[in-house]
Amino acid sequence: MRRIVIFISLVLCHVAVFAQGTPQERYIQKWAPTAVREMYRSGVPASITLAQGILESRYGLSALASEGNNHFGIKCHKDWKGKSMRYDDDAKGECFRVYDSADESFQDHSDFLRYRDRYKFLFDLKTTDYKGWAYGLKKAGYATDPNYPAKLIKYIEDYKLYEYDTMTYEESERIAESVEENSEVARGDSDVDFGRKSASVKKEKAKKEKAKKDRKARRARKKRVKDESVSDVIPASPLSLEEPKRIDKSGLEVFSFSLTREAYSRNGVPFITSVEGETYSNIAASYHLYLNELLRFNDLSCSEKLLPGTVVYLQAKKNQSEKGLDKYIVGEDDESLRDICQRFAVKMSSVMKMNGFPAGYEPREGDTIILRGKRLKK
What we know:
The protein is an alpha+beta fold. The protein has three domains: about 1-75 and about 100-225, Lysozyme; about 245-315, Membrane-bound Lytic Murein Transglycosylase D, Chain A, CATH 3.10.350.10; about 325-370, Membrane-bound Lytic Murein Transglycosylase D, Chain A (Roll). About 45% of the residues lie in helices and about 5% in strands. The protein has a four-stranded antiparallel beta sheet. It has a two-stranded antiparallel ribbon with strand order 1-2. α2 crosses α3 and α6 packs antiparallel against α7 (about 150-160).
């Protein structure tokens, strides 16, 4: 019963602040449904997304947000191939990402956190632990301001943004519908007012065109989320999904297992870790595999020296990664594409095809690599 009362009060609050309230309240009213949808898609708490959006974009009024649809101050980095704009931040004329719609900015913000190794520990926290997330973002280097966590927490507590962290996906969609309905009414009223003020017609026409593009993007995104069958369940943390699972050898008949050697699986693919003195040849013999077969399973064209602790897959890897590990953003480590494919138990040929990589491609720091789903748009 209490949950229903909270939900109804949130809906009424959204309707009430549409034509009044502070800029912060109007920002929350407009973007809360998107923040909740992102929480169910990526695992980033809605309260954190909203607080960061308010702080980074000055509740949507900053030049980055109004001109570039960039609500989170995300810079270009080395992998960015889209539009950009220059803006003075920590240094003069820094490069920032420009998005076709604000919705794209929200999605990129979620992906920026979920698929970079330095932020993955945050997803082991509960989505209701907004304080842990706020301090964790600072620890991971998201912001240089020492007061960044305190600022986020203040916004979350002053505007009760934590209530969105327990909202269901279905409830967020209902709020989104109420916001859209009221915005249509407001636009109708504004048309009358603007008709009396011809001097501002051109400016308002541009605003309406931008709003139309945003609505179109939201509808497309809502359809995309529906097509992907997003459930009312927040995804597991990426670190927990990457954790190898111990294999119960008693139920396996595909190949022989040593009774004394542990075997694990990742993405449903069984593997062992090599020990001192082993070679691919003797591992293949031990598991009744052809050497060329074992090499193919591990994306190798010829046998090479096997270092202790190396993951060796005993079956063909999958064509795509486990759900929830859809992308990987390359970090500072010197990783090869094969290293990444071994880490996520995905065939290198499939990853090359999904991403449209040319022969001989090697990842660079900041590159986004699609591991699951459709090919990345260039």
